[in-house]
Amino acid sequence: MSKHEPILLKNMLQPGYSGSLQDYERAGGYQALRKVVGNVPPAEVTATVMKSGLRGRGGAGFPTGVKWGFLPKGYQGPRYLCCNADESEPGTFKDRQLIERDPHQILEGIVLACYAIGAESAYIYIRGEFVLGARILEVAIAEARTAGYIGTNVLGSGITANVWVHRGAGAYICGEETALLESLEGKRGLPRVKPPFPATHGLYNKPTVVNNVETLANLPHIISRGPEWFASIGSPPKSTGTRIFCVSGHVKRSGNYEVPMGITFRELIYEQAGGMRSNKPLKAFIPGGASAPFLTPDHLDVKLDFESVAAAGSMLGSGGVTVMEEGTDMVWAALRLMEFFYHESCGKCSPCREGSAWLVQTMRRIVAKRGRMEDLETLIDLCKNIEGRTVCAFGDAEVSPIRSTLKHWRPEYVTLIQEAEAANLIRPEQIVGRH
Amino acid sequence: MRAIEAPASHGHRESEMLKEKYQKEIDEILSRYPVKRSALIPLLYLAQQDEGFVSEAAMKEIAGLLRLTPPQVYETATFYTMLNLKRVGKFHLQVCKSLMCALAGSDTVIGWVKTKLRIGPGETTADGLFTLSAVECLAACGTAPMMQVNEDYYERLTEEKFDRVLADLKKDGICSLKTGPFMWPELANAVKREA
């Protein structure tokens, strides 16, 4: 059992907890909604969330209350809430657990958010592969509707909050909020040029808020226990509350661990996740999903909060911590992630579309021991021409595995290339497919 | 779940197959959105559920239902990897090959498929039972290696487990080793519930 008090995972850690409405209510569920609806003005709910310091749990870490505050005041017409359940950042598997084990916690958060921002419709955009999760949510929505928590007259207040599940169909980019909106509109998931932001021109060009599953799941607790309580947890003032970190790779006990922000990677990896799988030394870890640059054993004492990880040259991102042991081929690891980004580039911006193909070919060549020294310059040059030159953050993400492995483990690249050159001296190869 | 037989002989126009069969579902899907086009992916799923893949006829019919042009439907359908525009085997094995699974041995899993079923990624067995796809991250990194077969996840795969999944699917069409509702690490005293 963890020495840290879980908040979001608390219910599901109770033996026999099924995630049904009955179980959720018995654990104190929907009390926050009862407390607020019809009693507390929506603006006050937003103010409470702002005060709590809650930041988005999807990756970017934008303050949730501030995001809500961007909606135009006094706008007449529909507004929308979208719950981002697209969870597709490699290394991340927390939302899946929240959805499948405690769906009502998310639904209560959704209705609270709808109330605060004045949205009558909410769509849960869930990645297509989560068939079970979508089914569990549908059942939970039906239960909540029957009980009066969702629908046209929430708890008799006359307020409308309808919730629907919308399944994606296999596209990483749809986790990017504007691509999500495009996809929800039945189009290809291509990110939009911002501004305008979704707060003014979102779903169907109407004011829209997109919040991650874990972000929304925090809301009932913030409302019930107060913003001061929430703000005292973690690493205040900028990283408040807990995070569910998903630990994967070469550890003894991989899985989801909810801890206050601000504990060290050392504690997460060696205490929570039980340390290294084969007791080999740790060689590298990714701190926040595939988009976050790799870190080294020197960074084990970095704190798990937004600022500390950024200061160490990476990002806390989605909370997916992937650990690699001594002996892992870092060039191969970077190539694996590059293959992912190459596959998932949506094709809208030329630097990313063409660049990812070029990067992946160069990396494949190096790993296959057919590289040459100039390839390293090519890689850096390509990275420079991709990052910051695309509509969304995907371009910055796709260069991070290569940039960071080149920074920390350049000798591994050099060795592979030297071996290739040595082999070519003996057995010159026909050069094909070079750029 | 196969395509239904010879629709023309029943006097229905091919372009109204979905409407004939699923009017209720279609109406319910349309009722969720203020703008019709949002129903596109849900309707493409419906077509895929019906025929096992998304056929051109289905795309044309959906275009008519949503007052879109067929190219608009095609444009969306081709963007998403889960919409199969070609027929796949009865059991679609999707093995995750992203880094996190690769660290835990997903290449070995793909190797098992190759030696046991004699198919590589993108191929289908001669009996039409199994198709293999090597896919990117399915959000089960903590329980790697894993694969998704049609709608179900199978996690923490070992060769023994893998063999049983194939055998059960072949024999009964389902396998009790499928995982979920997901929680990892599991509770020490967890009671295994029906998914």
- Category by helix and strand content of chain A: alpha/beta
| Corresponding CATH architecture of the largest domain in chain A | 3-Layer(aba) Sandwich
Task: Give the proportion of residues in helices of chain B.
Answer: 25-40%
The domain tally of chain B reads 2
Q: Give a quick account of the main beta sheet of chain A: strands, pairing sense, barrel closure.
A: 4 strands, parallel
The CATH topology of the largest domain in chain A is what?
A: Rossmann fold
3D shape of chain A: globular
Task: Give a written overview of the molecule.
The complex is a heterodimer of chains A (435) and B (195). By secondary structure, chain A is α/β, with parallel strands linked by helices. Chain A has 16 helices and 10 strands. Chain A has helices at residues 21-26, 31-36, 42-52, 64-69, 94-101, 103-117, 131-146, 177-184, 213-225, 227-231, 265-272, 306-311, 330-344, 350-367, 374-386, 394-426, and strands at 80-85, 121-126, 162-167, 208-212, 234-235, 239-240, 242-249, 255-260, 282-286, 320-325. In chain A, strand 5 and strand 6 form a beta hairpin. Helices cover 39% and strands 9% of the residues of chain B. The radius of gyration of chain B is 19 Å and the shape is elongated. Chains A and B meet through helix 5, helix 7, strand 3, strand 7 and strand 10 of A and helix 2 and helix 5 of B.
